[in-house]
Amino acid sequence: MDRDIRDGDTYRNVEEFFRRWLEPGFGRVTGVAEPSLRPDGRAVAVTGTVLEKLEGLGSTRVAVADGDGLRVLTGGPGNDRCPRWSPDGNTIAFLSDRADEGVFGLYLLRDGLGEAVSAPRPDGTVEYCAWSPDGGRILLGVAGLGADLAGGQGSGTHSVRSDDGPGWLPTVDGGEESAWRSAWVYDVAGATVRRVSPHGLNVWEAAWLGPDSIVAVASEGDPGEGAWYTAALVAVDVTGGGAEVVYKPQSQLGWPAGSPGGRRIAVVEALSSDRWIVAGDLRLVDPASGAVVAADTGGVDVTGLQWLDDRRLGYVGVRGMDTVAGVYDTETGARTELLATDASSGARYPEAAFAPDGTAALLLERYDRPPAVTLVAPGGAPAELAALTDPGAEWLASVAGTAAAVRWTAPDGLEIEGVLCRPAGDGPFPLVVLVHGGPVWAYRNRWRMGYDYTPLLVSRGFAVLHPNPRGSSGRGQEFAGAVYGDMGGADTHDILSGVDDLVARGIADPARLGVTGGSYGGFMSCWLVTQDRRFAAAVAVAPVTNWYSQHLTSNIGHFDALFLDDDPYAAGGRYHERSPVRHARAVRTPTLLVAGARDRCTPPTQAAEFHTALRDHGVETELVVYPEEGHGVRRLPARVDLAARMLSWFERHLRAR
Fold first, then answer.
1. Residues 185 and 234 sit within 8 Å (Cβ to Cβ)
2. Residues 265-323: pLDDT tens digits?
3. Which CATH number covers residue 463?
């Protein structure tokens, strides 16, 4: 493949694909996230993404959806995000980097009108904000400018300055102050901001716990991303009374929420691959006694929490591949499901916002339909406030084929689920298996499946299978934990048996099979071609290919120790047995390897190692490293370039008709 693929017809065709899809939406909100429901339940504030050209990530703006549709409230400069209504519904707090690119501060917009007022700046960049129950203060989660970004955020660090010294100056990794996260509080009346978490405590995420305390998922002594995997639940007295551990989990924690009166803490505990990507069991913690109760959410892996009052708790999550939102009564244990749908809400996992009367706001989408800001009142039907449709989205849906849930049986009898996207007409089709990241994540029925590649490949005549092998979320902790200590084991056969099923049904052509994926999906793309020669081509994005060197060069070394359940310093064992590089001599599949130069989760050397190993054994391979990307390729036009390379690789080796 040419180094500069832009000279070829494939690139021009793919660029035209992106233009037909994206250009009609230029200048409009085409993506929404981070919903906040006004307390009266009649308006939803969101972070809206606006793209002006085929370059970069686009900009983000605060927008509000109500009975009059969707309107943008902020205009930058820079990016505005994370809107949060005040308890009285009169003010929106939000974050913006308008004063310093990449460094977010707190701003207040009163009555949705006029100029936003900036708050004093803490030391670092603000990642999230939350009003106190009485509306008098705002909690700020602050990251130092050298703090790690999670893999789901693209890895790297918050800010890399090129003008901080001469070019020869070395980088130093030693737990410097800029790597820490902390909690701060802004006093609305006094217009002052102060740090409330003690030094030496790294606060990954936090929420109010009554009027004078916060509850945090936090680590002591280490700000590195790997420390998150062993973080505890900590209560912090914001009046200066110190911090106290109230719960040490067996797995990982996410989405802490304290009741308005401070009597209970709700938190999700789950086996998790990445920070901010947590789906699991709801725990209710008594901060006074430390007593912990496991709440029954009806088989839902919870992905978001919000207290409605001191007794009722709004929750959202996944059950199978469905999005479920409901209200849980912490006194009686009764739950009321507001919505259970095969549509998705939110990107990584379902997200929702709640009003005190139990109304929920979701961002519902399907493979062939972009997100719509939707309200669901107790006992009522979903009501759309704003749908993000435009001629480009309609064109994309017209060429993207269809998506349907599929199920098959693994060799050990376990039922496995997935989503199959396919063109019109009869098979067999050339099939690409797209393995998700994680391993603890899951596919749902999302707009374009969340990828550029799926609708592009389907438009060119490919079927695309999105499997949810064991280890995926939505089916409880036992199913998620089945991958623990066994990555590259039974999950391998979960995926291969799905291919067998589609071949047997006449949907997939056994002579034209490909595999791709990113992160864990990148590992599996490399691993599968060492275990089975049925694949005619592979494209691995941000892969792990050598678990031993991954442990020593990644910023999340605790992840591999956890999921391989082994000692990286012991000879042999899973670190060596489950490394694709060790099995490179068995590979015959042409493999394209893709990495981001700024990736600290799966460093680009992982792709380079497998590339070299394949070349040593005479296998066709190419290595593509994007200098401005981290964990995955997120920016335009690099997205166009990767899509063109992937399509060219599969069309050449699978000979799509």
1. no
2. 999 999 999 999 999 999 999 999 999 999 999 999 999 999 999 999 999 999 999 99
3. 3.40.50.1820
